[in-house]
């Protein structure tokens, strides 16, 4: 698969059509992050929550596709007037991991946050999810020591303005 020629398409998650798929991604992300300690919410609860979030942030709750194959899912929030955007879920499906698709999804996420004039991006990650930590560090995130509870680390990404100033 040639990443250079890959063109991803994005569409807002439709909880009625995509709820089962989105819930499966959420579940796998929980299991990957927390292993046996994972407590993913039941699919029906997740879809109900997702429905409200999609209504509030329709451009932030996306599925990414390469042709007809789902590459990943993003759950991004940029509340109006806030300096920080938040990543609820950043997920790349297993067949597309390690091929650069995460970087493409991340570029789209940064575009979304910038469009809402966010100055930084925050997310939480399990310290046991080594692959995710490596990815976020490569994307420029750093750990915030102020808000960590041990089970999850808070990571931050500063978004310089378009002129390059931080």
Explained architecture:
- The structure is a single chain.
- The longest helix has 20 residues.
- The radius of gyration is 15 Å and the shape is globular.
- The chain has one domain: Gcn5-related N-acetyltransferase (GNAT) (Aminopeptidase), CATH 3.40.630.
- It is α+β, with helices and mostly antiparallel strands.
- It contains 4 helices and 7 strands.
- The model has no long low-confidence stretch (mean pLDDT 89).
Tertiary shape: globular
Q: Give the neighbour order of strands across the main sheet.
A: 1-2-3-4-5-7-6
Instruction: Give the CA-CA distance, first to last residue.
Output: 36 Å
Question: Measured on Cα atoms, how large is the radius of gyration?
Answer: 15 Å
Tell me, rounded to a whole number, the average pLDDT. Answer: 89
The CATH homologous superfamily corresponds to Gcn5-related N-acetyltransferase (GNAT)
Number of helices: 4
- Which CATH-level-2 architecture? 3-Layer(aba) Sandwich
Number of domains: 1
Unreliable spans are: none
Name the structural class.
alpha+beta
Report the portion of residues in β strands.
25-35%
